[in-house]
# Entry
Amino acid sequence: MLYRDVIYLHTKTDSFQDVTERVAKIIEESKIRDGLCNVFVKGTTAGVMLNENDRMLIEDFRKLLATMAPDEHLYQHPENAKSHLRAAMIGNNITIPVADGKPMVGSWQNIILFEFDVVNREREVVVTIYGQ
Amino acid sequence: MLYRDVIYLHTKTDSFQDVTERVAKIIEESKIRDGLCNVFVKGTTAGVMLNENDRMLIEDFRKLLATMAPDEHLYQHPENAKSHLRAAMIGNNITIPVADGKPMVGSWQNIILFEFDVVNREREVVVTIYGQ
Amino acid sequence: MLYRDVIYLHTKTDSFQDVTERVAKIIEESKIRDGLCNVFVKGTTAGVMLNENDRMLIEDFRKLLATMAPDEHLYQHPENAKSHLRAAMIGNNITIPVADGKPMVGSWQNIILFEFDVVNREREVVVTIYGQ
# Structure
């Protein structure tokens, strides 16, 4: 059985959003009890990560990514190269197990979308559930 | 067809374990011949990677991650920020093809779990196989 | 329904190839309209990434990875440690949604294979489609 839905988000430049509950709700609506859930963000300047939603930790993540791909740096790609690089380091697709109609994840394992682009964006997060 | 099992591991802080054979055994037990196998580690301070299980290479990986998220550094998240950051750089979920009842991977492509936390942990690695 | 095919590539050391169209063609051949598509590269010194295929951006990616795992550096793993490290940072497996028989990705979201090895290689990219 296959079920798919899309989460539409307005994102602000250089921000994050926790989509754990919205993904859990889609899994519930799917009526799929056991299987896998794929979370995929369209676009090349946003990322999706499974980790703790702690504001201070998110700040540590932002600093790490800003060290890797700094704001002030001579890139070849114009405008938002840093956004692409940071997004690729985080990745934009995750697949998690589903058990008893719920994401089978650790207690602190939240699904966090990072907007790395230099302008505000409209984002589509595609959630696909496969199972029985 | 769906099959799921969990690998329970005792991990020591800052260590790694090769789970390739245990995953292959679960695939065998599933009787699924062709499909996909998802390997997912619960928790936000451990990672799972597909790469060569060579002790010297693993040391190179640890050094790279320690350069990215150093032991001695002022983080905002208390205690184990470095563990979260290193885990996120490696990722905690992989999906690999299954053919003829075996992981369809390269000869040196082992499934390696990294424990990045600052204390020993009990870990659950969820293995989900989907196919026919 | 399950469908699998393999893309065979000759790769040059330290190069990249865009496989978006070949993956789209396999999805079309599968006759699967809705589901998920897993793209997996065999081997431990190549990576696969979803991002914009812009020559200047790719150059930025190469520079970032060369900063993380430099050419000239004392590694413990002999010969091609840098290739393993760079490959692991990019990852070697992605899973993308399929809708209406096409990859459901952003306009600039190309599937790009990176060859990080120090010699030319023959690569196998396994494409598995699951759906209905």
